[in-house]
Amino acid sequence: MDISTFDPSEAVVFDLNRGQVTLDGGGPVLLLGADVVAAACAQLDANVVRQLGHALGKQAGARMRARLAALGAPSLEVMVEQLAGEISLRGFGALALERWGQALVVRIEGQPLGPQGQELLGGFLEGALLASVDREVTALALERSAQSLRLLLCSKAAAARMKTWLLAGGSWGDALTALHQAPKNDVVGGRA
Questions:
Q1: How far apart are CA 43 and CA 40, in angstroms?
Q2: pLDDT at 9
Q3: Are 24 and 63 in contact (CB under 8 A)?
Q4: Which of 126, 113, 132, 133 is nearest to 36 (CA)?
Q5: Is 107 within 8 Å of 96 (Cβ atoms)?
Q6: Residue 192 has what pLDDT?
Q7: Spans of the chain, pLDDT less than 50
Q8: What is the full DSSP assignment across the chain?
Q9: What pLDDT is attached to residue 183?
Q10: Whole-model pTM?
Q11: What domains appear along the chain, each with residue ranges and CATH number?
């Protein structure tokens, strides 16, 4: 049985004497308004925003990896709990996982960045998974609303096929069904 190692108490430390905020004992972090970050994301090239998200995600993934080291091979539920905790610590919203057959879809509710934050959150998930479980994943946006975002965790090849399907006007639900005909390991939940 897996025991969660995510403990949000004392994860964010405010050192008012030094004028610094730290996250999980790491280096200083900045507290920025969501509206400021959303405006910056809207002005920057999508690749730059994704790289920024990837860098933030790698930091989160390193913290996850350190907490999970004692567990050996943690269950999917523990990994989701860890990732959800890291998303919450950054103020990006509440993360939940949806299984669509073999495919894993991440749903983030209450994300404050609107459509401008899609690339940032996609990069964050990719970086976090790379650093925590050493697996390269593409986080492809499937559906977004003002405060909600769904992303498919898949290989680059699967993401390319999904984009083609979606650009042709297909629904993402139908695309996920078609993706199950793909080679093994094309989606994160696929068998190796």
A1: 5
A2: 81
A3: yes
A4: 113
A5: yes
A6: 38
A7: 1, 191-192
A8: --------TTSEEEETTTTEEEETT-SEE----HHHHHHHHHHS-HHHHHHHHHHHHHHHHHHHHHHHGGGSS--HHHHHHHHHHHHHHTT--EEEEEEETTEEEEEEES-TTGGGGHHHHHHHHHHHHHHHH----EEEEEEE-SSEEEEEEE-HHHHHHHHHHHHTT--HHHHHHHHTTSPTTSBTTS--
A9: 53
A10: 0.88
A11: 34-179 (3.30.1380.20)
Instruction: Copy the structure tokens of residue 183.
Output: 């080679």
What is the edge-to-edge ordering of all strands in the sheet holding 103-109? 94-100, 103-109, 148-154, 138-144
Per residue in 85-109, pLDDT (tens digit) is 999 999 999 999 998 888 899 999 9
Give Cα separations from 100 to 43, 111, 118, 124, 177 (angstroms).
34, 22, 21, 22, 8
Q: State the Rg of the chain over Cα.
A: 17
Q: How many residues does the chain have?
A: 192
Give the chain's end-to-end CA distance (angstroms, integer): 23
Whether the CA torsion 128, 134, 136, 142 is positive or negative: it is: negative
Q: What is the model's pLDDT at position 11?
A: 87
Place of tokens 């999980």: 24
In the numeric block, the tokens 């995600």 are attached to: 57
